[in-house]
Every structure is written in structure tokens, then in C-alpha cells.
Design a protein that fits this description.
Layout (H helix, E strand, L loop, with lengths): L1 H24 L5 H13 L3 H29 L4 H10 L5 H12 L7 H7 L11 H7 L5 H16 L3 H5 L6
Helix pairs in contact: 1-3, 2-3
GO molecular function: DNA binding; protein dimerization activity
Pfam families: Dimer_Tnp_hAT, hAT-like_RNase-H
Protein name: HAT C-terminal dimerisation domain-containing protein
Length: 173
């Protein structure tokens, strides 16, 4: 009986492990510091491998989502300023596009993603009054892709909860 339970737990853990890791990393109070601390206790000398797996999963998810949304943005209609310039100046619709090209040529190549920037910031102090949804809403301008990705991630995780947990919140998990 115990061996069957261990097998079921290992199967469950292998499925939920990545999702839990992503959720922890996207909490500005914990990020990878939480994983570094607890994975050392759980996995010992293998902790760095497990952390790297979660890091790869985070970057893969971010890059996949960013590629999907960038395709939508690039294929969308011109932005407001380009439309205004185009309507006022006739063929000068490329005015800001030329500026964008100039900026790209003269600035260093931006090699950091939103995820890199987010992860480089210090973790926030833990507080009983911290509201993670509010924090992400406030930081939506700074991390637009991460905020949208997180919204989808939370929704998908909520939909994966067993029905008895959704209908009976007093059930202890």
C-alpha cells in the first residue's frame, strides 16, 4: 500500500513540480530564492539541476508566449501615432519607423528580457498584507508580457484544480 502511494505521489509531483516552481518564481517575494533555499533541503546536491530545470521551464514558457504575442502585435494595424502622421503627411507613414531603425542601430542590442529584468530585482519583503494580484496590476506597465502570461497561468492552474476543491473550499488538501 505504501509503495503504491509513493508511486502515485511521484507521478503527481512530476506533473505539479514545474507548475509550482513557475508560480513561486513569479511571486516577487520569493522568485528563485525560495527554490534555492528549499530545493537544497529537498534535493541536496542535485538542487542546482532542479533549479536549472525550473529556470529553463520559465524561460521556455516566457519565450513561447512572447513569440505568440509579438506575432500578433507585429501583424496588427499601425499604431495611433503612425496613423496620425500618415493621414497628415501623406507618404510619411514611415517617419517613426525610420526613427525606430535609427534607435536600433545606435543603441546596444537589448539582450535582457522582461523575465531577466524581473529576476534581477531583489525579492520583496514578505508581508501579511501583500497582495500579489495588486502587485502585478501595478507593475503591468513594467512587465506587460509577464503580467499577461501570469494571468493565463493562474487561470489554467485554477481550471486544473479538482472539482471538489472548487466546490468545497473547506476541503483540506
Amino acid at each position: 500500500m505504501a509503495s503504491q502511494m509513493a508511486i502515485k505521489f511521484e507521478k503527481y509531483w512530476s506533473i505539479i513540480h514545474g507548475n509550482m516552481g513557475i508560480a513561486i518564481v513569479l511571486d516577487p517575494r520569493f522568485k528563485f530564492k525560495w527554490l534555492e533555499y528549499f530545493y537544497l533541503k529537498l534535493y541536496g546536491s542535485l538542487s542546482s539541476i532542479e533549479i536549472e530545470n525550473i529556470k529553463n521551464l520559465c524561460y521556455s514558457l516566457f519565450e513561447d508566449y512572447q513569440a505568440r504575442t509579438n506575432g500578433l502585435v507585429e501583424n496588427s494595424s499601425e499604431n495611433f501615432i503612425d496613423r496620425e502622421l500618415s493621414s497628415k503627411n501623406g507618404n510619411n507613414a514611415n517617419f517613426l519607423s525610420d526613427f525606430d531603425s535609427f534607435v536600433n542601430e545606435t543603441d546596444e542590442i537589448q539582450s535582457k528580457t522582461e523575465l531577466d529584468i524581473y529576476l534581477e530585482e531583489n525579492v520583496l519583503p514578505r508581508s501579511a498584507t501583500f497582495e500579489i494580484h495588486g502587485w502585478w496590476k501595478t507593475n503591468e506597465i513594467k512587465y506587460p508580457t509577464l503580467q499577461k502570461l501570469l494571468r493565463i497561468f493562474w487561470q489554467s492552474q485554477f481550471l486544473q484544480l479538482p472539482q471538489n476543491m472548487l466546490l468545497a473550499p473547506e476541503v483540506d488538501c
